[in-house]
User: What shape does this take?
Amino acid sequence: MMLMFSLAAVLSTASSDAFVTYSRRIILPTGDVTLTSSGSDDNNEPVFYDDFGDADFGGSSTSSMPSQLMSNLSSRMSDTKNLEATYDAKLARNWRRGNWGVRGFGLEKTSASGKPAIVSVVAAPTSSASVDISLPQDKALGEDRKVAVGRSDGSIFIIQLGSEYLTSFVSVSNPDEPATSQWMDAADVEDRSNNDRPKTKFGDGAIVSDDDTASQQQQPQPFQVIHQFQATEKEEPIHNLVYHDTIEGIQLICTAAGESGAIKIWSLDTSESNSHGEELVAALVDVHSSKIVSLKAMVIPSHNAAADERNVLFSASADGTVALHDLDKKGELIFSCQCIDKVKNVGQVTCADVSNPTAWDGGCDENDRDVIFLGTSSGYVVGYVAEELMTAAASSEISDEVCPVPSIQFRAHGNDSGAGEAVTAIRCGGHGTIPNTAAPTVGTSRMTSKILLTGGEDGAVKQWEILAQQSTFGVRLEHWPRMSSQRMKRRHHLFKGHHGAVTSISQQSMYDSSKFLTSGNDGSIRVWSATNGEELFTMDGFTSFVSSLACLGRDLLVTDGSGQYVCVHDFSIDDDLEAGYDLDW
Assistant: This one.
């Protein structure tokens, strides 16, 4: 029999009159202790006890709980905490030492028309549930973790991750699909994971071993194609991809391909599988006129208690325009404007990201706002407070579709000429270390700064602290350090190691800013200590540059850059396993 109980906690937010509660359920064996739930004669039913309420053991109160049971519960709780601490320590050690295992999957080398096709982008799922404060370190990820894959032929795949060393997907005929589409299924591949007994995956999905007595549950599980569909008609490469779960539980795929600036929003029917469950919700073709450089999903809390949170899609284009789209209303345009001031010659928009702290902090401080950051071809970073843009759009203050004065603008890379010093990657990195010394207003707290990471065309990576303060004209943003001679007390500013442009910046967790990852045109991934600037380790062996880094929780990193293959880097391995485990696809 199993005993189920709840651990509950109350977390105080910055506001003195607000609090958040959360609970976690753990199922533990009770050994020889037999319990009966009140009002039930079935001893096989699990019993749930809530520490906010009174549990009834056959009519007795919790105060008369047998000492044997209390001892068992205390022991199980201690074991659970020890296991969690051990797992946390293992992950931290592996990330620090560069100890990880590799597995992955491969898609067909060619498109439906016979042209070469490679993986062009990978994306981790985002969700309104990811702000669940009870599981901040893993962002409330489920056991059946998935990743979205975009290819150079315009096709999209949703893959459920497996534990098998390599699952290879090949084209198969499907009479229900048109001749121009491509259907993929798993092929026969040899599994070479951490076991000296080779296993083979056959077409029917069965995995067999030389040891016939081995349990199926102990065998590596293959990767699975959950959805696959063609997102473009002309086989244009997918270069921006968003995989988002809305508040209502609807899974959306947002894609940008080619140079046109068009954005497509797809809805996935989770009740069906493969290529029969997608529906084109909207095609946004009149907002941007040039290549999309960034797509990001946001969750914007409502200031009205009666209104729900909003799922919003942010888009930025090389033509200097930015826009917000309402994902809850089929991509309806909230606002768009031209953000780049050509008079000041800050260049074209090359990359963008959104700091969305109001979602995962609850918007508890008036100075803590969602901020849009743009990187430009002349080395500038330009920032706008999203709420101010939406307010200006609603009040018709944005004339001729030109954005208001930015909340921050500074040169991040290059000298005054800006030649060859474009900002090629940008990432909002969570909480910083500099406190706001301004006196807090009633009901608010002193907010710390926010981290901003930028990567340059010259391979340099820089870390900035962005501070926000309320002023007469709205929220004013400032960056630190302001001059090259200045230093940061608790964090490092300049990171050098890449040979060529930085292509992507990511973090293991938005709640852990102690380290971050970068990829570059040199075909390497580098992991850095944010505090002392040390390069912890380098990941290489890719066949081309890595364009996207998808972190799924604290333990998994998913990457492209290997042709038709997608690599899953697992940092949860034990030290004594996977010695000499290397990728030889």
The mean pLDDT is 75. The longest helix spans residues 67-97. The two ends are 46 Å apart (CA to CA).
